[in-house]
Every structure is written in structure tokens, then in C-alpha cells.
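Recall that a protein's primary structure is simply its ordered list of amino acids. Everything else, from secondary elements to tertiary packing, is in principle encoded there. The following example makes that idea concrete.
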Amino acid sequence: MADRGASALSVPDDWPAHPDPILALNRMGSFDWDLDTGLFHMDAQAHEVFDVRPDEFDGRPETLAVRVPAAEGSRLDAIVAQAMKDGSENYGTYFRLRRRDGTLRWTRTQGYIRRDETGRPRRIIGIVRDATQEIGDIEAGREQAAEDEARRRLTNVVQLATAALAHARTVDEVIEVLRDTHGLTRLGATSLVMGLVEAGRIRLVADGPDNSFVPGTRVTRIDEPYPMSEAVRTLSPRFIESPEDFAERYPLLWKDITHLDITAAAYLPLIAQGRPIGAIGLLYSDRHGFSAEDRNVLVALGSGIAQSLQRAMLYEQEMDLAEGLQQAMLPRTIPSVPGCDVAVRYRAASIGGAFGRDIGGDWYDLIPLPGGRVGAVIGDVQGHDTHAAAVMGQLRIVLRAYAAEGHPPATVMARASVFLHELDTDRFATCLYAETDLGTGVVQVVRAGHLHPLLRYGDGTCQHVRVEGGLPLGLSAEFGRLAYPVATLELDPGNTLLLCTDGLVEQPGADLDEGMHVLAALITAGPPDVRDLADRLIDVADERRGDDDVALLLLRRHGLGAPRTFGRVQQHVSPGDPEGLTEARHMVRAAVRSWGAKGQSDEIELVADELMTNALMHTEGSAIVTLRLLTGTDRRLRVEVEDSSSALPRRRDAGDEGVSGRGLLLVDTLADAWGVEARGGGKCVWAEFMVTRRTAHGSG
């Protein structure tokens, strides 16, 4: 009963210290102990606490030994000595003293140790007070607490078991919680058995410990003379008070469990929604009989286990439905596309770390397109439920349809956003669509709030490619911001494009950028084959046991077998968007070089730039730039710029000092042919360049 944290007392400069009147009013005595002289001064109240008259006390602490028993005095001296030795400023403890009438009384003392500038203890000032009632109250509280603890013990069994079962999502997890050693300890039992009702029979699903199984009881009928069958049949518990009671009531079972030294048992029906779903038997080797309170607690325990089992059964049913739905919504097979190797992977989210799997809205898709192109999609619908999976399936279908119709990537994304907005759902989705021309290696990327793509080069190095994006699908339509910028990348033979959802990147305690750097390092160190690399990345995601699902798509361009007789790339350019113009020029330059017309790239890029600039300056809408490689008796590279204006371009005389009006003259001079075609409510201005057969095959 000692503490070094007693609050420090104020220390007067004179000696002996004058007692605080408040101390006396609270029946506290004070003392002042000069350690140099050994004199121990006490005030009147302290004399009363020690039951010593002033004329009986000579100021020496030793004189108080007549009131302080030897054992208590030694303990008190040790506490004070230790406080002085270890540099403490104060101490406090309870000790007993013997009054004149021989009775022992508890006393509380607190002291403040005053030291000189060298740290040497010179003086102790403190208080003493009678603490008999306080100690009595403490002891009474302990006794009451012990009684309360005994009353709570059985209730805690239910609470602990319920807490342990709260994280169990499946029937197997409920069983695992109950049958392991800690589960038995929580239940207070030596061993247990549990069975589930199936088609009029009881199938044993758990028993423990290992030597407690009774042969022939794996499956039993409900009408057999077993306590578990009786509990299920009558919907009421069966309490067995003693070994003799067990042997008399259930001799068929008792003869096979005598080696377990069972002294009592409780068999509880597991009832959910008024019908039995099973029963559990708790067998004890240290209990004799059950009080009314014991029985109530065990019945409550059975009810809690039944609820957990029912929840697990419903969860498994929902999971079967959800997994079937999700598998139906994801592509059944990934088509083989000449010119590239593709690997896709999906991993469902983990629930609570090691427990169970969930369903989510992550998806991937690969869309073969005309002209040697292929569209790669990765997306994530908000939420982890069947509704997210249903929305995901619908989005996947419409994205595939819009891409197959021939819309440019920005239009595909914008239309998908409008579709989701009109779907009457509160969900939004992030998405990334990458359209790759396998002949040229030109990749046009559109991003709707999704993660940026990654590029792995032929030497194994990996780069996190930042791509400008728009709002997530569903939100862009809601906020009227349907413009999605298009970025152009180059995918050389041997390079790999990687698209993924955030479940592969997010890690506890790390931000998204850090996660992307970690992922890039994993890709760099991974195997070269895209299938092996995909397996490795999913294994890492499994090791993390994240709480989000993962979708992954890898596309490696190898050039072999890719269509080489024609090609097509396209980009949408908005008015007032200089970055869009830059991306379009980049697309033209990359396609021309890839198609082997590198020697003509300056002329072609100059003409394309002139046509784009004219469309943006002299019309009120955006422009669509398309570059085609045409084959036939000759090979031609065709640049098309489409706008929504029906006004035809015309040559103008720029004059000697003019800076405009020379555009069509430039086109006419550099292109082998050019012209204008009507397109719906607008027009298309085109220019063609002859490309020799040798040049067209010059590079991939």
C-alpha cells in the first residue's frame, strides 16, 4: 500500500513547519522531520493519531515504536529509505499502529522530501491521518466486487463468445471459433459437440478436443436417444447434473465418453426464427449441477450461437448468389488478339483480414476492334455488394458496345458516364479506357477518376504514367463536365501496358503515390511473361489481405502477327485546348514513324496541324483528327479532320504582309491530294500522302 506519486506538500522555510488549519479541520496531523538532527516534530493532531501525549514523546522517531508494530515499522522505514535513495520527492503508504487499548488502526502517511543543492535529503515534511474507515471501505468494496465478479462470470461467457463469433462470416468460421482451445475456454467447457439439422437428421460439424468424438454419431436421426437429438426434437435444453444422471438418462452415449471424466453437461438447441437449425453440447469436468442463473446464461449462449449460425448461413447464400452474379458479369474468356499478349486477374476483397471474401464492382475487359486495334478497360464501381456487381456488369456491356460502334475513346467514356447517370442508381464508377493500335503502337488513353496506367519497358523498368483525366462516371454527367481529355502513349514492341484498380495499390499507412511506386518496383522485379507477372501481383495482393477487391489487366505488344496492311488512330480536340492539340500532334508523329514514313513525318505533321488549326479557328465546335494507312495498288497515308460546320474551306490571298490565308496553299503544296467531304451536319477535310512499299515496312 505504498505509492511514490503522492502529491507534494508545500514546504515552509522555517522549522518546524506550521500545520495548515485545513489539515486539522480534516483530522490530519502534520510532522516535520529534521534528518540532520533526527528530531521528529508532530503537531497536536499527529499526537492524537499516534495516541501519544506530548509529555510521552521526546522528538525521536524511535519512541513511536511503542505504537508501530515492528513489522510495520520495518516496512515503513524501507519505503522512506528507498524514496530518499532513488531521488523521489515524495512518498505515501498505509501502515498499522497499535493504540493504548491494544486495537490496531490503519494510518495513512504522506511525506515530502526536501533536499539541499547537492540532492542530499535534509528534511521530510508530511501528514498522518487515521485510515481505518477508508481501509474498511476498500475491503468491503473488494468483497462486493468479488461477489459481483462471481455473478458476472457466467454472463461474461456469453459476452466473450458473442464477441468472438461477431467476426465469423461463414459456418466454418463459426465452427472454428467454437472448437478451438480458446473457444472452449470462453465457454467454460472441457469439450463440446455441435450438429446442424439437415433433411431430418443431425450432422455433426464440430467436436473437440480431438479425443471426444464418438464413433457412429457423425450423422444421427432426430428421434434417436441422444441428448442432442432430444434438444432438437423438443426445442428445449437438456441439463445433465452428474455422471450418474448422464449414465441413467443416456446410457448409449455415456458408455463411449466415460474416458472424458465428464461431471456435468448442457445440450442446447440452436433455434432461429422458431425452428431448430442444430444443437450444441457443452461437457464439463469441473462442474456439479446448474443453478437457475447458470441455466439462463447457457440458454442465452445457445441463442447467441444460433444467431451467429443463421447469419453465417444467410451470408453464404448471399455470397453464392453474389459470386455467381459477378462471375456472370465479368468476361467469361479473354479473346486472343494478334499482335499482343494479354493477362487478366480478379481477386475478391477480404473481409476483416483473414475472414471470408466479399463481392465488389471492379472489372476488366478486352475489346477487339477493327483495323488491328484493341480496347482495354479497367474500372471500379463504388461499393461492395450485389448492386455494385450489377452496375459493373451493365457498365461493362455499354462500354464494349460504344467502343465496338467505332466511337473515339473520349466519346466512349462520355456516353458511359451519361448511361450511369441515367441508370437510377446512387453509385459512381472510376474507369480507364486505353485503345491501342497494335500496328503502330499508338495508345489513346482516357481516364475517368481512375488510377494512372503503368508502362513496363522491354528492359524491365517500369514507369508510372500520369494521364490527365475527367470526373468519375456518373458524376461527370451530373455536374455537366463530360469532356474527357485523351492522352497518347507509345507502346513499342516488347513493352507492357498495365491497368489496375486501387486494391492493388493501397496499403495501410501509405499514400497512393507511395503505393504506385511500390507497385512499379514489384513490376520491375517481376517475371517478363505477362501471365506470370499477373500471378505474382495477385499473390502480393493476397498476402496483404486487403479489404478491397483487385482487377488487373496487362497488355504486352510483341508486334508479331499484328495487322500491317492498314492502321487507324483518332483523337478528339476541343476548342481552346492547347494540350489537346499537342496530344494530337504527338499521335500523328508516333503513327507516322510507326508506319515507316519517318522521312515524311515533318510534312504530314505540318499538314495535320494546319487542318486542325483551321477547324478550331473557323468553326464553333471541336475537331476529330483521324490518321489512316490505306492499302491497295499503292500505299497512302490519309489525314482527316472532321468538324461540325458545313462551311467549306476556301483559298484566300494572304498578300505580301499577311500571316493567314496560306494554310490551304501549304496543304496543296505538301500533300499528294486533298479534298473536302460532307459528313452529316459537318464536313471532313482530308489530305493524302503517297508512301512507298519499302518505307511502309521500314519499322513497326
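The longest strand covers residues 104-115. Residues 5-12, 351-357, 656-660, 694-700 have pLDDT under 50 and may be disordered.
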